Automatic annotation (TrEMBL):
GO molecular function: isomerase activity
Domain of life the protein comes from: Bacteria
Organism: Modestobacter versicolor
InterPro entries: Phenazine_PhzF-like (IPR003719)
Active site residues of this protein: E46
Taxonomy of the source species: Bacteria, Bacillati, Actinomycetota, Actinomycetes, Geodermatophilales
Protein name: Phenazine biosynthesis protein PhzF
GO cellular component: cytoplasm
PANTHER family attached to this UniProt entry: BIOSYNTHESIS PROTEIN, PUTATIVE-RELATED (PTHR13774:SF39), PHENAZINE BIOSYNTHESIS PROTEIN (PTHR13774)
NCBIfam families membership: PhzF_family
One Pfam family it belongs to: PhzC-PhzF
UniProt keyword terms in alphabetical order: Isomerase
Length: 293
């Protein structure tokens, strides 16, 4: 049997840009090795593999980059949810992920189908001086480049991300980092991305997310990092009074992306909303194509 690999650009901005993800809507019978090989062949930062559950709207999801499995991926979740909505109609989904249960709601509007994921509880902790120094060395940045209003932290909403705020948009735009050095550091620390950002205004942030552990220089839109970032701002006391903020990502890659982030009142969870657009399909995936590990 075979299941097609769908392609969606998630967190598009006005129908443009976004971060492409692969989606396999029925990965029943696919081995771990086959999923990893498929993700490597697709070549995107992540591909989502869904196995339908016993009840409507319930699915188990696994996420693979070209190099490894990750516990959770926001943009691939949005891509998969929009793909399901286009097939089955909008509504509520409950996804079982390695990071925990994730609820997603989809809706149709004038700009197409959107998906809103509710993250697992978001947490943050200060980064150590050694972690910060090693990261700055890999980035080729100096302590003076950082915005003192936003201390370095490790934030999580399913995956760990180092969060670094910089003073200027020019510093963020000029990103040319040491890929092997940052890859080795992030693998040792267990970080999925380094979330680099600048505050455009109190409720709008431009961001870039290097992703060398996945074999990807940079992510155009990172929903998991956006959720973790929302939790970080909440913990820091710098979240907008409305609890809503916008993360703009991917512009420096030529793929502008828009992620809408909302802190859930009375909860540590964070909602992230984005649109997704279908791209031309890839070849089918053959189940049991490789031995499991």
């Amino acid at each position: 049997m075979s299941s097609p690999v769908l392609r969606y650009a998630a967190f598009t901005d006005g129908g443009r840009g976004g971060n492409p993800a692969g989606v396999v809507l029925d990965a029943t019978g696919l081995t771990e090795a086959a999923m990893l090989a498929t993700a490597a062949a697709v070549g995107y930062s992540e591909t989502a593999f869904l196995v339908p559950g016993a009840a409507p709207g319930q699915h188990t999801v696994r996420y693979f980059s070209p190099l490894a499995e990750v516990a959770f991926c926001g943009h691939a979740t949005v891509a998969a949810a929009v793909a399901l909505a286009e097939r089955d109609g909008p509504g509520r989904l409950l996804l079982a992920t390695a990071a925990g249960p994730v609820e997603v709601t989809t809706a149709s509007g004038p700009d197409g189908t959107t998906a809103t994921l509710t993250s697992v509880p978001a947490t943050s902790r200060p980064a150590t001086a050694a972690q910060l120094d090693a990261t700055l060395a890999a980035l080729g940045w100096a302590h003076a480049d950082l915005d003192p209003r936003f201390p370095a932290a490790v934030a999580s909403a399913g995956n760990d991300h180092l969060v670094l705020g910089v003073r200027t948009r020019a510093r963020l735009r000029d990103l040319h980092y040491d890929f092997p050095a940052l890859q080795q550091l992030m693998a040792a620390e267990g970080w999925t991305t380094v979330h680099l950002f600048v505050a455009d205004d109190p409720a709008t942030f431009s961001a870039r997310d290097p992703f060398p552990p996945g074999g990807v220089v940079e992510d155009a839109a990172t929903g998991a990092a956006a959720a973790a970032f929302g939790g970080y701002l909440r913990d820091l006391g710098r979240a907008p009074a409305t609890g809503r903020l916008t993360v703009l990502q991917g512009a420096d890659m030529g793929s502008p992306s828009r992620l809408l982030v909302e802190l859930v009142p009375g909860s540590a969870r964070v909602r992230v909303t984005g649109a997704a657009t279908r791209l031309p399909a890839l070849a089918p995936v053959t189940r049991h194509a490789a031995a499991g590990r």
